[in-house]
Amino acid sequence: MPVDLRLLLAEVIRRNASDLHLSVGVPPALRIGGLLHYVHEMGPASVADVERELSLVLTPDQMESLKSAYELDFSFSYRSPDGLEARFRANCYYESRNMAAAFRLIPLNVRSIDDLHLPEILKEISRRRRGLFLVTGPTGHGKSTTLAAIINEINKTRYEHIITIEDPIEYVYRSERCMVHQREIGTDTSSFAEGLRRALRQDPDVILIGELRDLETIAAAVTAAETGHLVFGTLHTQDAAQSIDRIIDVFPAHQQTQIRVQLATVLVGICSQQLIPSGSDGSRVCVTEILVANPAVRNCIREGKTTQIKTLIQTGGSMGMQTMEQSLANYVAQGVLPLDTAMAYAYDPKELQRILADRGVR
Q1: 34 contacts 108 by C-beta, under 8 angstroms
Q2: By residue range, what is the domain housing residue 184?
Q3: Distance of CA 156 to the CA centre of its chain
């Protein structure tokens, strides 16, 4: 069977795969439950196969941009002949002088905080009126989905103006109680930093920034939070302490004292997460570390004592805080995750063992 992108995209939706990979010399592959599964029925793709199939989802201008810049981010909606629908975020690139692409499945329906079994504290975060909240974790571990659930909660419960700045637009929101405007880098604005600066003149209440990727964007996000907006963003960091250090370290040494003070003032909290395989059916659970910025946390940030933050999270359960190991222990105790899987994903396996021993779980 020849390589057929339309059939592959339908298969991604049908099998709830997270990603599709298309490249020269190997069969297409679906990522299901975190593992790659090759579609051997289609055989290895040729150079002509890849370019032909990508031309089905790229405009002529996008194809020209790919050939000149060797990289292209975009998103699109897809409906299969049998009626399956979804959105995809895609990255086309060159490897070994040949085109290749990775497609990420984005469900059409935004799932709620309850649907995703996320911590209840995120509903409280969605009711905040100002400040900066971060969702962090590795690539492909559901940060965009968690943010979409929070934005969806705001959209259904508040009468306000939400602006998102994304590269590319992933989840598409329908204005419900809120008015939602979505801006895409390269199409609607030139950069995250520029879009964020302009957003402040557009009467926003809530601003979502797809990625805090440079000093200019981070500085603009902190300023937006300082001026009375609720700002959401993502970082590719492992935990709360590392996220705070990453933001501080982006700035030159002579500015770091000032940004510590600013961040201590505006930070609402941090959700760091991992998606972990929970069964042979490809299902995954979202395991989270939650930091809520209380006076002790703010003091640690101001004084540069981020190494003490984990202790504050461990003892902050009454405020909705939890470490990654505490979250993992909960899933092990509930029988959702086997112990060996939880140990493999724990940042501190000895701490996980201690928590489970204290609970009498073996």
Answers
A1: no
A2: 121-322
A3: 21
- Tens place of pLDDT per residue across the chain (362 aa): 899 999 999 999 999 999 999 999 999 999 998 899 999 999 899 999 999 999 999 999 999 999 999 999 999 999 988 898 999 999 999 999 999 999 999 988 999 999 999 999 999 999 999 999 999 999 989 999 999 999 999 999 999 999 999 999 999 999 999 999 999 999 999 999 999 999 999 999 999 999 999 999 999 999 999 999 999 999 999 999 999 999 999 999 999 999 999 999 999 999 999 999 987 677 899 999 999 999 999 999 999 999 999 999 999 999 999 999 999 999 999 999 999 999 999 999 999 999 999 988 77
Is 269 part of a structural domain of the chain? yes
Which pair of structure tokens corresponds to residue 246? Answer: 């990453």
| DSSP code, position 317 | G
Contact predicate 259/247, CB 8 Å: yes
For residues 106 and 171, the answer to whether their CB atoms sit within 8 Å is yes
Q: Is residue 355 part of a domain?
A: no
Check if the beta carbon of residue 93 is closer than 8 Å to that of residue 84: no
Q: Around Cβ 3, how many Cβ atoms within 10 Å?
A: 20
Nearest to 8, CA basis, from 46, 47, 48, 56: 56
Nearest to 201 by CA among 174, 238, 163, 235: 163
Written as six digits, the tokens of 302 are: 């101001």
**In this structure, are 37 and 92 located in the same domain?**
yes
CATH of the domain at 70: 3.30.450.90
Same domain assignment for residues 238 and 313: yes
| Same domain? 301 vs 192 | yes
Please tell me whether residues 76 and 177 are part of one structural domain.
no
* Total domains in the fold of the chain: 2
